[in-house]
Design brief:
Strand order of the largest sheet: 6-7-8-9-13-12-11-10
Radius of gyration: 21 Å
Family: Belongs to the WD repeat ARPC1 family.
Shape: globular
Structural class: mainly beta
Strand content: 35-45%
Oligomer: single chain
Helix content: under 10%
Subunit structure: Component of the Arp2/3 complex composed of ARP2, ARP3, ARPC1/p41-ARC, ARPC2/p34-ARC, ARPC3/p21-ARC, ARPC4/p20-ARC and ARPC5/p16-ARC.
Largest sheet: 8 strands, mixed
Subcellular location: Cytoplasm, Cytoskeleton
Number of strands: 28
Main location: cytoplasm
Protein name: Actin-related protein 2/3 complex subunit
Length: 386
């Protein structure tokens, strides 16, 4: 088993983030609060609840916090909520003090992520809008520039390219899009390279129409040469050579859909979602991506084998098939995937130092209220992809 730590923090966790030294974890227990725990003598103790400091400063989050990101360099936390607000938190002494963010949204904020240089962050929303926020020193607040009229539905996920300019988004309209976020006075001209070299803020670089269902969980590879995102149709998409003629692949699997993805190396991706156990995808020497196995399973599943899913078993029961019976296409019933998470995994984060291209440890959180730390160090069959 690759899980080295399992912590039951709440009944349900919406999202989580780690401090720069990974000694503290912040998460939303499916409400309007953000709890921060610190590891002390092999035990986790609650040290902060961010919403408490908002009573006399700003209007506190009054709905579910849907996104958290903790910047590794500047040690700032950004939160986004269904109440259409976002705050940037700075540690002053022993208290976290919020700074106002002007989002100008009329629908829920759904996701948030710091840019690599931490001079901007992006917020995806239910208003079909992306807010790219930057700090104004003279007013002591964060203002936003909006990318509007590009999405046909809610923006479900955002991901920054390593160049700090390109931003990938996924949407419930089934599409993945890449935009330029160059802001004069915030970004430098030498940061505009590749397909974004001459682009202006909000300019769409490419639109990927690979999925015919909701799209979630977009991520860039460490080099920024490959993009991966997932659809609610139990497919994962890989795109190379971002530009006018991108090269795209898709991998279909017969298990439940994914919600988020993480590149642990240039050739290996971990996907998490409704099957409650991380799934491993990898590219061979030719660059062809395929499903390898669940992390809870030791034996690699060959490409020719058939494996079932929780949906397959439920579907069989609905039509009167026995628990271990076979359907017309001989689909096997679902098997236990390892039993670490008991509900949907909705967040996956790396646990590695900034600048390290290979991620040996990562964490997941889900609707079961657990934060699980996974280790790939002793996975011999995966070492060739790391």
């Amino acid at each position: 088993m690759t899980a080295i730590a399992v912590n039951q923090f709440a009944q349900c966790i919406t999202c989580h983030a780690w401090s720069p030294d990974h000694s503290m974890v912040a998460f939303c227990p499916n409400n309007n609060e953000v709890h921060i725990y610190r590891l002390s003598q092999d035990k986790w103790e609650k040290v902060h609840v961010l919403e408490k400091f908002l009573h006399f400063v700003l209007k506190q989050h009054d709905q579910i916090v849907s996104g958290i990101d903790w910047s590794p360099r500047s040690n700032r936390i950004v939160t986004a909520s269904h109440d259409r607000n976002s705050y940037v938190w700075n540690l002053e002494g022993s208290e976290w003090v919020p700074t106002l963010v002007i989002l100008r949204l009329n629908r829920a904020a759904l996701c948030v992520q710091w840019s690599p240089k931490e001079n901007k962050f992006a917020v995806g929303s239910g208003a079909k809008t992306v807010c790219v926020c930057y700090y104004e020193q003279e007013n002591n607040w964060w203002v936003s520039k909006l990318i509007r009229k590009r999405h046909d539905s809610s923006v479900t996920s955002v991901a920054w390219h390593p160049n700090n300019i390109l931003l990938a988004t996924t949407s419930a309209d089934g599409k993945c899009r890449i935009f330029s976020t160059f802001i004069k006075g915030v970004d430098t001209k030498d940061s505009r390279t590749g397909p974004s070299s001459d682009s202006k803020f909000g300019e769409q670089i490419v639109q990927l129409d690979l999925s015919f269902s909701w799209a979630f969980g977009v991520k860039w590879s460490p080099s920024g040469n490959t993009l991966a995102y997932v659809g609610h149709n139990s497919m994962i998409y890989f795109v190379d050579e971002i530009g006018p003629s991108p090269l795209a692949q898709n991998v279909a699997f017969r298990d439940l859909p994914l919600r988020d993805v993480l590149f642990v190396s240039e050739r290996m991706v971990i996907g998490v979602g409704f099957d409650c156990n991380p799934m491993v995808f990898a590219a061979d020497e030719r660059g062809i991506w395929s499903f390898i196995r669940f992390l809870g399973e030791r034996k690699t599943i060959s490409s020719g084998s058939k494996y079932g899913s929780q949906f397959s078993e439920a579907f069989g029961k609905l039509y009167g098939q026995s628990k271990h019976g076979l359907s017309n296409d001989a689909v096997e019933p679902s098997r236990s995937r390892g039993g670490i998470h008991d509900n949907c995994i909705n967040c996956i984060l790396p646990l590695s130092q900034s600048g390290i291209s290979t991620v040996m440890r990562f964490s997941t959180s889900g609707l079961d209220g657990k934060v699980v730390i996974w280790d790939l160090e002793n996975q011999a069959d995966l070492s060739e992809y790391l």
